[in-house]
Model the fold of this input.
Amino acid sequence: MNRIITKLTRDIFILLGSLHVSLGVALAEGEIPSYQPWDEEIVEAFKSLPIQQGGRIKPMQAYAQVKLLRYNAKRSMKLEVGKPGSTRTVKITATEWLLDVMFRPELARKFPIFIVNDSDAIIDIGMEEHAKRRSRYSHDEIFRPAAAPEDNPRTRLSEKSSKYSKIDESDRTGKQNQVVHLAGNVGEFEYINHLFDFAREGVSINLPEVSADLVGEHLPVSVFLRNVAAIRKASQDPSKIDDLGVALDMVNKQMGLYLQTARLFGFTPPRDVNEATWLLPSDLMEAGIRGGVAGAEKIAFELGALERLEILGSAEPNSSGFKEALAALRKSTERSMEPRGEGKRIGVELLLYRGKFAGNVQACLLLGFLLMMGALLAGQSRIGLWLRRLGVTFGIFALALLATWLTLRCIVMQRPPVANLYETVIFIVTIVLLLSVVFHFFTRRPIVLPAALLACSFGVFLSMLYDGMKGEDTMDPLVAVLNSNFWLATHVTIVTMGYAAGLLAAIIAHVYIFAKIFGCRDRELLRDITRMVYAVMCFTLLFSLVGTILGGIWANVSWGRFWGWDPKENGALLIVLATLAILHARMGGHIRQDGVHLCALVLGMIVAFSWWYVNVMGVGLHSYGFTSGIKRAVWKFWQIELVVLAIGFVSRKWCWNSWRGLGRASSGQ
Done:
């Protein structure tokens, strides 16, 4: 019976592909004749169904959103339904899309889901590209048969991906990266699409000499597993060995396929409350194969869990039976989670998604910026005063949303929200906005807050862009090097606050430089801005120095050395040394107002290096969180800052000469 587990595993993708070749023949490109929306109760129940995936327990909605974002570059999708010339647009959420993929697999394979940014990748695998260079393609388009098997797009996609994946990602062309990315997405989609095949298809077997239950087509897998002991006993009869071998051959093929496809995530908490890993559907089947020899009563728990999944997978989608099966599965899972204390954060995570914090924060920041810019144009009039108050109110509201966003993430993750680049963006935006609001109320200068609102808006956009580029769950468990709540709450949090302060100093410096370029003659205002930059730099030095020292202590605890000239350590040291140099130069009179702000721009460039660039250098113990495109983005940021620096140097002399001429003219009068 052990050969059931291993037989034909090497042919899995060939078997998967063969299921679809015939389906593609009659399909017109992008044609979806009809679409029945899912019942709202089913969507809500499925959205909150707990699963374990990626090392953590999460609601199904979390998995759905990440996968749709990865494949489609959006968290929802639109379908053109109907015949050409009489179509209608249907918008479906990530949860509804995942329901379709799992339980209406033929329909989901017609959805134009896979985003391809460069049509050269489509041409490379032998497909016909769409009119737009950046377009979305369906699974059935990729499986459309060709005249020769070697010309089939799915075959060529696998071959090209295998070839290109051997090339280092940084050395691949854009087309090659697109092919590798598309192949990974298509392969993963197929596993989701076939996850419940074991429930829909079952097994075909003809063993009347063993049991009357083991005769027929599409018998439930659980029925077969309940009879494993009887099959094993019958196989010991020499007169039945040949008949059993023939009858079990097809079962071996089917079970081998199911054991490979039904292993995406766990639906079932284990019996042992001390066991952390949930059981995959394939685990339940393997337990049935191995443990069934001793009798079905020995595997009653596993078979019961498998039967609940079979009932759900074989039910008519969107029917009352499907709704009841989903409710039963959810109730059983939640009941098993109670003694383990694992279900407490599911509701909080659903609230986190329901809040749509990124979009709402972005809207508040932009509205606040526009209102405060309107207030600056309106001057000291009553309209200007009200616009300013509204702008500040939206800024404070954005700050409250950011704080709520971070708090909910902390509750879900049970750790500080500074463990990956996505989280540090949100955290730094929060600190920058908080400091800017404090400066606004203490200085009564409506200059810094508008700039901070605009910069924070860009930061939130950057977080959304990064989230879309990665297409991964940003709340998954940490890499081993960061797996310490104490050090995350001390070293990482403190040094990240130092990053935030350094970036705020650069933001304020931009205000000063462009204020001078556009003819600001208010010397008192410019001095106030300089004092703000000086104060923020002191803040930067304090938190960067303390955070760096704490990082050294953590390195000594984890790696046995306090300092190793790692790029990340060097970047933190550069921030400390640069801030010290600027403050000493200011105190010694070597630089004055203009010099402080120009140096603050350089400090911002150093912070970008330490915060983002060193993580993707591939050197040292801190090289984690790699995302293609970060190096290019940092280089563009540096180029922009170098242009601003050049403008600042030029305008410094021009503005000084203008002021000196203005002074002489005033004296002459």
Remarks:
- The two ends are 106 Å apart (CA to CA).
- The chain has a mean pLDDT of 84.
- The chain has three domains: 3-37+62-197, 202-314, 353-659.
